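A favour, since you know our C-alpha coordinates better than I do. Just paste the record in under my message, thanks.
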Amino acid sequence: MTKMRSAVLILTLALAGCGIGRVPAPPTVFDLGLDASPVPALPAREPIALVFQAVPALSDTSVIWRVGDSTAPKAYATYRWASSPMELVRQRLADRLSRQGPVLNERVSLQTPQLQVFLSQFEQVFAADGQSSEGRILLQAVLVDGRNVLGQKRIALRVPAPTQDAAGGVAALRQASNDAADELAQWLAATLKPSSRTGG
Protein backbone atom coordinates (compact mmCIF):
# COMPACT_ATOMS: atom_id res chain seq x y z
CA MET A 1 0.00 0.00 0.00
CA THR A 2 2.88 2.39 0.84
CA LYS A 3 4.52 1.68 -2.52
CA MET A 4 1.23 2.35 -4.29
CA ARG A 5 0.82 5.69 -2.50
CA SER A 6 4.41 6.65 -3.32
CA ALA A 7 3.88 5.79 -6.98
CA VAL A 8 0.69 7.84 -7.08
CA LEU A 9 2.45 10.81 -5.50
CA ILE A 10 5.41 10.63 -7.90
CA LEU A 11 3.14 10.31 -10.92
CA THR A 12 0.93 13.15 -9.71
CA LEU A 13 3.88 15.50 -9.37
CA ALA A 14 5.46 14.45 -12.65
CA LEU A 15 2.31 14.45 -14.77
CA ALA A 16 0.62 17.50 -13.32
CA GLY A 17 3.35 19.69 -14.78
CA CYS A 18 3.30 22.19 -11.93
CA GLY A 19 5.07 25.46 -12.64
CA ILE A 20 5.20 27.41 -9.37
CA GLY A 21 6.15 31.02 -9.97
CA ARG A 22 6.03 30.70 -13.76
CA VAL A 23 3.46 31.89 -16.25
CA PRO A 24 1.81 28.69 -17.52
CA ALA A 25 2.24 27.91 -21.19
CA PRO A 26 -0.87 27.33 -23.32
CA PRO A 27 -2.01 23.71 -23.05
CA THR A 28 -1.09 21.22 -25.75
CA VAL A 29 -4.24 20.15 -27.57
CA PHE A 30 -4.85 16.64 -28.91
CA ASP A 31 -7.51 15.00 -31.04
CA LEU A 32 -7.83 11.46 -32.44
CA GLY A 33 -6.11 12.34 -35.71
CA LEU A 34 -7.25 11.58 -39.24
CA ASP A 35 -9.15 8.34 -39.69
CA ALA A 36 -6.80 6.84 -42.26
CA SER A 37 -6.26 3.31 -40.93
CA PRO A 38 -7.89 0.36 -42.76
CA VAL A 39 -11.33 -0.85 -41.74
CA PRO A 40 -12.89 -4.33 -41.96
CA ALA A 41 -14.53 -5.29 -45.26
CA LEU A 42 -18.19 -5.68 -44.29
CA PRO A 43 -21.47 -5.83 -46.26
CA ALA A 44 -23.50 -2.67 -46.82
CA ARG A 45 -26.41 -2.08 -44.44
CA GLU A 46 -29.49 0.10 -44.18
CA PRO A 47 -29.33 3.48 -42.36
CA ILE A 48 -29.08 3.55 -38.57
CA ALA A 49 -29.63 6.36 -36.05
CA LEU A 50 -26.78 6.89 -33.58
CA VAL A 51 -27.63 8.09 -30.06
CA PHE A 52 -24.45 8.70 -28.06
CA GLN A 53 -24.03 9.50 -24.36
CA ALA A 54 -21.17 9.46 -21.85
CA VAL A 55 -20.47 9.80 -18.15
CA PRO A 56 -20.22 13.45 -17.03
CA ALA A 57 -16.42 13.28 -16.60
CA LEU A 58 -16.06 12.73 -20.36
CA SER A 59 -18.10 15.78 -21.30
CA ASP A 60 -15.24 18.29 -20.95
CA THR A 61 -11.80 18.42 -22.57
CA SER A 62 -9.66 16.99 -19.76
CA VAL A 63 -7.15 14.24 -20.60
CA ILE A 64 -7.75 11.79 -17.75
CA TRP A 65 -5.27 9.36 -16.21
CA ARG A 66 -5.14 7.21 -13.10
CA VAL A 67 -2.91 4.63 -11.42
CA GLY A 68 -4.13 1.03 -11.51
CA ASP A 69 -7.60 0.56 -10.06
CA SER A 70 -7.42 3.78 -8.05
CA THR A 71 -10.72 5.57 -7.48
CA ALA A 72 -9.00 8.95 -7.82
CA PRO A 73 -8.73 9.92 -11.50
CA LYS A 74 -6.47 12.85 -12.39
CA ALA A 75 -6.31 15.28 -15.30
CA TYR A 76 -3.13 16.44 -17.02
CA ALA A 77 -2.56 20.12 -16.21
CA THR A 78 -1.02 21.13 -19.56
CA TYR A 79 -2.80 18.85 -22.02
CA ARG A 80 -6.37 19.02 -23.32
CA TRP A 81 -8.56 17.35 -25.92
CA ALA A 82 -9.68 19.51 -28.85
CA SER A 83 -13.27 18.49 -28.04
CA SER A 84 -14.72 16.42 -25.24
CA PRO A 85 -13.97 12.67 -25.39
CA MET A 86 -17.72 12.17 -25.75
CA GLU A 87 -17.72 14.17 -29.00
CA LEU A 88 -14.42 12.77 -30.31
CA VAL A 89 -15.46 9.15 -29.86
CA ARG A 90 -18.96 9.78 -31.22
CA GLN A 91 -17.47 11.30 -34.36
CA ARG A 92 -14.98 8.46 -34.79
CA LEU A 93 -17.75 5.88 -34.45
CA ALA A 94 -19.95 7.75 -36.94
CA ASP A 95 -17.08 8.04 -39.44
CA ARG A 96 -16.24 4.36 -39.28
CA LEU A 97 -19.80 3.04 -39.22
CA SER A 98 -20.68 5.20 -42.23
CA ARG A 99 -18.39 2.98 -44.34
CA GLN A 100 -21.17 0.36 -44.34
CA GLY A 101 -24.22 2.63 -44.52
CA PRO A 102 -25.66 6.02 -43.51
CA VAL A 103 -25.39 7.08 -39.86
CA LEU A 104 -28.18 9.49 -38.86
CA ASN A 105 -28.44 11.82 -35.89
CA GLU A 106 -32.07 10.81 -35.37
CA ARG A 107 -34.56 8.27 -36.61
CA VAL A 108 -36.30 8.90 -39.91
CA SER A 109 -39.05 6.53 -38.76
CA LEU A 110 -39.66 3.78 -36.20
CA GLN A 111 -38.40 1.36 -38.84
CA THR A 112 -34.93 2.95 -38.67
CA PRO A 113 -32.80 0.91 -36.23
CA GLN A 114 -31.39 3.02 -33.40
CA LEU A 115 -27.92 2.35 -32.02
CA GLN A 116 -27.65 3.62 -28.44
CA VAL A 117 -24.04 3.89 -27.26
CA PHE A 118 -22.82 4.85 -23.78
CA LEU A 119 -19.15 5.72 -23.17
CA SER A 120 -18.15 5.06 -19.56
CA GLN A 121 -14.33 4.98 -19.72
CA PHE A 122 -11.78 6.81 -21.86
CA GLU A 123 -8.51 7.29 -20.00
CA GLN A 124 -4.84 6.41 -19.61
CA VAL A 125 -4.17 3.91 -16.81
CA PHE A 126 -0.67 3.53 -15.35
CA ALA A 127 0.79 0.47 -13.66
CA ALA A 128 1.52 0.92 -9.95
CA ASP A 129 5.24 1.39 -10.64
CA GLY A 130 4.62 3.97 -13.37
CA GLN A 131 6.72 2.02 -15.86
CA SER A 132 3.87 1.19 -18.25
CA SER A 133 0.40 2.40 -19.12
CA GLU A 134 -2.47 1.69 -21.46
CA GLY A 135 -5.40 3.46 -23.04
CA ARG A 136 -8.72 2.05 -21.89
CA ILE A 137 -12.10 2.51 -23.51
CA LEU A 138 -15.40 1.03 -22.37
CA LEU A 139 -18.59 1.21 -24.44
CA GLN A 140 -22.03 -0.27 -23.97
CA ALA A 141 -24.22 -0.48 -27.09
CA VAL A 142 -27.88 -1.39 -27.48
CA LEU A 143 -29.53 -1.83 -30.87
CA VAL A 144 -33.26 -1.05 -30.98
CA ASP A 145 -35.64 -1.63 -33.90
CA GLY A 146 -39.01 -0.02 -33.28
CA ARG A 147 -39.85 -1.17 -29.76
CA ASN A 148 -37.74 -4.30 -29.96
CA VAL A 149 -34.21 -4.71 -28.60
CA LEU A 150 -32.23 -6.57 -31.25
CA GLY A 151 -29.12 -7.01 -29.13
CA GLN A 152 -26.56 -5.46 -26.85
CA LYS A 153 -22.78 -5.33 -26.93
CA ARG A 154 -20.13 -4.44 -24.35
CA ILE A 155 -16.76 -3.36 -25.73
CA ALA A 156 -13.85 -3.04 -23.27
CA LEU A 157 -10.42 -2.52 -24.85
CA ARG A 158 -6.95 -1.93 -23.46
CA VAL A 159 -4.15 -0.75 -25.77
CA PRO A 160 -0.54 -0.36 -24.49
CA ALA A 161 0.80 3.20 -24.63
CA PRO A 162 4.07 3.62 -26.57
CA THR A 163 5.35 6.24 -24.09
CA GLN A 164 4.49 6.99 -20.47
CA ASP A 165 3.17 10.49 -20.95
CA ALA A 166 0.12 12.29 -22.32
CA ALA A 167 1.17 11.77 -25.95
CA GLY A 168 1.52 8.04 -25.35
CA GLY A 169 -1.88 7.88 -23.71
CA VAL A 170 -3.46 9.76 -26.62
CA ALA A 171 -1.88 7.37 -29.13
CA ALA A 172 -3.22 4.37 -27.22
CA LEU A 173 -6.69 5.89 -26.92
CA ARG A 174 -6.73 6.70 -30.63
CA GLN A 175 -6.02 3.06 -31.47
CA ALA A 176 -8.55 1.88 -28.88
CA SER A 177 -11.21 4.13 -30.44
CA ASN A 178 -10.53 2.74 -33.92
CA ASP A 179 -10.60 -0.84 -32.64
CA ALA A 180 -13.83 -0.23 -30.72
CA ALA A 181 -15.49 1.26 -33.81
CA ASP A 182 -14.41 -1.74 -35.89
CA GLU A 183 -15.71 -4.18 -33.29
CA LEU A 184 -19.01 -2.31 -33.20
CA ALA A 185 -19.25 -2.37 -37.02
CA GLN A 186 -18.64 -6.12 -37.06
CA TRP A 187 -21.32 -6.67 -34.43
CA LEU A 188 -23.81 -4.58 -36.42
CA ALA A 189 -22.99 -6.58 -39.55
CA ALA A 190 -23.79 -9.79 -37.69
CA THR A 191 -26.96 -8.40 -36.07
CA LEU A 192 -28.62 -6.40 -38.86
CA LYS A 193 -29.75 -7.70 -42.22
CA PRO A 194 -27.53 -6.56 -45.14
CA SER A 195 -28.85 -3.75 -47.31
CA SER A 196 -31.00 -4.82 -50.25
CA ARG A 197 -29.61 -1.97 -52.31
CA THR A 198 -26.75 -2.50 -54.70
CA GLY A 199 -24.29 -0.15 -56.20
CA GLY A 200 -22.70 2.96 -54.79
Summary: Strands lie at 28-30, 48-54, 62-67, 74-81, 103-104, 114-126, 133-145, 148-160. The CA atoms of residues 117 and 141 lie 4 Å apart. The chain has a mean pLDDT of 87.
